[in-house]
Design a protein that fits this description.
Bound molecules: 6-O-phosphono-alpha-D-glucopyranose
Strand content: 15-25%
Strand order of the largest sheet: 10-11-9-6-12-13-14-17-16-15
Shape: rod-shaped
Largest sheet: 10 strands, mixed
Structural class: alpha/beta
Number of strands: 23
Length: 746
């Protein structure tokens, strides 16, 4: 129907134009052909007159007109010559004429007719052309010869011409109409297939290029939508106090209860077999889990992760699912099982020996093995299958987490084209040169560009990513909108600084008072009353700057011997990835260093200057240590964000305690009231630690109050909320585009 309407819009004006052209051209053509024929007949008459002139002049010399009559009779045998007359020049007398000469055509009438633009007269036998030509003798003109030539054949010819002209114009019209219809059909099909592609879910990812007349409209629409989005984003900025309730509201309203699926390697609850044969639930030491878990509690949904606990299999149902948190179920955990070889290749190998050092650039060489890469791909496919199996709709919101799943977004996109895929990269993204050493750099980038939104902690990491894509892929990058279009998928790249859940008043009320925490911690580590305490809390990872921190402690004791015996540094280091050589060597190295420092500065009876606790600590135990410390050292050599720094701040409801923070941790961009250090600069770190231990309580309070304000506001619900708001606006945009296209198609 629309096609027909569109074609009629082209055809009607065309047909009207052709009709007008025919209406004007036919009489014009008629007049022109008649004039051409009249001129021909004149020339012909002239010729006849010239031929006859001598004979007429001779015949006029004789008194008898018989000779003249014979001459005219012979001449009139020409089938075109209807009649001939001869007029005297002085008295207009008709001296001689042939039989067919019209009796009422006097000499002066013939002369008048011949002078007309169209010298044609109607006589009995039909139309004749009238020509008057001089008969010349040696002395000059002696008479006028009137020639009446047949004009009826000219009328017939002009009728033929008219017929041809009409046929020609009609044929021309038909050809033009046919071309128009074909072009309209083709372009309409292009438009319709564009609309169909959009309905298939490719609209958001494939920039639609509507044909011809609709192109400016579509471009306009897209621009307007983007402007609205920007306004919307601004309006959803800092003003909203983000908490679990705000996030739930967002999901109910802006996302209309859409399904949320999280995919990560690390699971939020690990069931392990205990020594007594029972089962214990562990919470892993993972910044990712710390951040995503409260979000999942707020939005329900399903979390898909590797089931890594020794008792994990016995705690799931027949679909490998269980409701968590244990005892207070709020969402579903779906476990994916891996063989030891798969875990070795995908997790230890490619993810942690390859991508982890590659992205952290912390002077540990990345190792890339072909077999690890094969497992990485295979396991990604397994998780993609799990996402498809868990999805209850064709367009779920899938939150893909971290460097373990760089390939997952494109794999999910291939199976669920309408899904909104939000990928968050929890670790740094290096510059293009550093990233370039990965043999599968293209595949990694292509996998990530299956995402609808790709998030990093900082703007700097976003910039590195855009530059990396620019260097290694043929993709369209729009810096103004921070989007990358690759193979018709548009990915929005944005920074979303991750954070923690700000403790509720009830949680804060349940904490032990600071003095009690100090007392318990002092007892645990054998600290003397009044002994100063600095802490470090990390996974036992070479990126955390534990070695550099110990050197700083050592240097401070060197410079300030009065602190020997009056100061202790406690390092809590949760064992991690211990089956990797690099991690084992690192742990041994730290242990040796601690022993050396203690040997050097040990004061005999009291607590040693450094205490290394290589054990996993649950959240409550950590809160106690955080609240007991005078200073907390976060000296990562490179860190996406670092949530320990934020946990320490959240724990200090007494507004005391000093945070020393590496400038190479993403957190340094937000937590500007911390003491910012370069972890590689031992002297600077030692001095800063000394400064922290001597900072007046008022200054501590001022700094800590500001830091707490920042973390309270920029909490994890804001992190998730901002991403989901962006997901919502992109889904909205997709729907509007679909609606507009459906409207113009229907
Ligand atoms: C970092 C990564 C997380 C990971 C965590 C713990 O924070 O970004 O993805 O879960 O380290 O590491 P693990 O290998 O024990 O999961």
């Amino acid at each position: 129907m629309n096609t027909l309407r569109l074609q009629l819009r082209f055809l009607l004006p065309l047909l009207v134009t052709l009709a007008v052209a025919a209406y004007l051209a036919v009489p014009l053509m008629d007049r022109l052909t008649q004039r051409w024929f009249a001129r021909d007949l004149n020339l012909r008459g002239e010729l006849v007159a010239n031929t006859l002139s001598d004979s007429i002049a001779d015949a006029l010399k004789t008194p008898s007109r018989g000779r003249l009559a014979g001459l005219f009779r012979r001449a009139a045998k020409d089938e075109r010559l209807v009649a001939i007359g001869l007029c005297s020049r002085d008295d207009n007398e008709l001296l001689q004429h042939t039989e067919n000469y019209p009796p009422d055509l006097a000499c002066q009438d013939a002369r008048a007719a011949a002078a007309m633009p169209s010298p044609v007269l109607q006589i009995e036998g039909g139309p004749v052309h009238v020509g008057v030509h001089q008969v010349m003798s040696e002395s000059g003109p002696i008479a006028d010869l009137v020639l009446l030539q047949d004009f009826s054949y000219i009328g017939k010819r002009s009728q033929d011409t008219r017929k041809y002209l009409i046929v020609l114009i009609t044929a021309l019209g038909a050809v033009i109409a046919l071309i128009t219809v074909v072009v309209a059909q083709l372009s309409w099909r292009g438009w319709v297939s564009g609309a169909r592609a959009l309905l298939r879910g490719e609209g958001l990812i494939r920039p639609i290029t509507p044909p011809g007349e609709l192109a400016p409209l579509a471009a306009d629409l897209r621009m307007r939508l983007r402007d609205l989005e920007d306004e919307y984003r601004r309006s959803m900025g800092l003003e909203v106090p983000w908490n679990a309730e705000a996030l739930r509201l967002l999901l109910r309203t802006k996302l209309r209860g859409d399904e949320v699926i999280v995919v990560s390697n690390r699971e939020p609850y690990i069931h392990d077999r205990a020594a007594d044969g029972g089962v214990v639930v562990r919470h892993p030491a993972s910044g990712l889990v710390t951040a995503v878990e409260p979000v999942m509690r707020a939005c329900s949904g399903t979390w898909i992760a590797h089931g890594s606990g020794t008792a994990d299999r016995q705690s799931v149902d027949s679909h490998d699912r269980l409701r968590v948190p244990p005892g207070d179920p709020m969402y579903t955990l779906r476990r994916v099982w891996l063989t030891p070889e798969e875990e070795q290749g995908y997790y230890y190998g490619f993810a942690n020996e390859g991508l982890w050092p590659l992205c952290h650039v912390a002077h540990v060489r990345p190792v890339f093995r072909e077999s690890d890469w094969d497992f990485y791909r295979k396991v990604s496919q397994r998780f993609a299958d799990a996402v498809v199996a868990e999805a209850r709709s064709e367009d779920p919101i899938v939150l893909v987490q971290d460097y373990h799943f760089a390939l997952l977004p494109a794999m999910i996109r291939a199976r669920l084209p309408k899904a909104t895929i939000l990928t968050f990269w929890h670790i740094p993204w290096p510059n293009p040169e550093s990233f370039g050493i990965c043999p599968w750099r293209r595949e990694i980038l292509e996998g990530l560009l299956g995402s609808t939104i790709l998030g990093f902690h900082t703007q700097y990491h976003c910039k590195n990513f855009l530059e990396t894509v620019d260097r290694y892929l043929e993709a369209r990058i729009e810096h103004e909108h921070s989007t990358i279009t690759f193979r018709r998928t548009e990915t929005y790249v944005e920074s979303y600084p991750i954070s923690i859940e700000w403790p509720s008043p009830e949680q804060q009320a349940s904490w032990r008072p600071v003095e009690e925490c100090r007392a318990r911690t002092a007892k645990r580590f054998g600290l003397a009353p009044g002994q100063r305490l600095a802490i470090g809390v990390d996974r036992f990872d070479y990126t955390k700057g534990i070695l550099e921190r110990l050197h700083a402690v050592e240097r401070m004791l060197e410079k300030h011997p009065e602190l020997i015996g009056a100061f202790t540094f406690v390092q809590i280091a949760a064992p991690t990835r211990s089956s990797l050589e690099e991690y084992r060597f690192f742990q041994e190295r730290i242990e040796r260093l601690c022993a050396r420092i203690n040997e050097r500065f040990g004061s005999g009876g009291g607590a040693p200057p450094v205490i290394l606790v290589a054990e996993h600590h649950e959240h409550d135990a950590l809160m106690e240590i955080y609240r007991a410390a005078d200073a907390c050292l976060v000296t990562s050599l490179h860190d996406g964000m670092n949530l320990v720094s934020k946990e320490f701040i959240a724990a200090r409801s007494d507004e005391q305690g000093v945070l020393i923070l590496s400038r190479f941790a993403g957190a340094a961009r937000e937590l500007t009231e911390a003491l910012i250090v370069n972890p590689y600069h031992v002297e600077e770190c030692a001095d800063t630690l000394y400064q922290a231990l001597h900072m007046p309580p008022a200054e501590q309070r001022e700094r800590m109050a500001n830091l707490r304000q920042t973390v309270r506001e920029f909490n994890v619900y804001r992190w998730a909320g901002r991403m989901l708001v962006d997901a919502g606006r992109l889904r909205q945009r997709q729907r509007i585009e679909e609606r507009v296209l459906r409207h113009s198609a229907g």
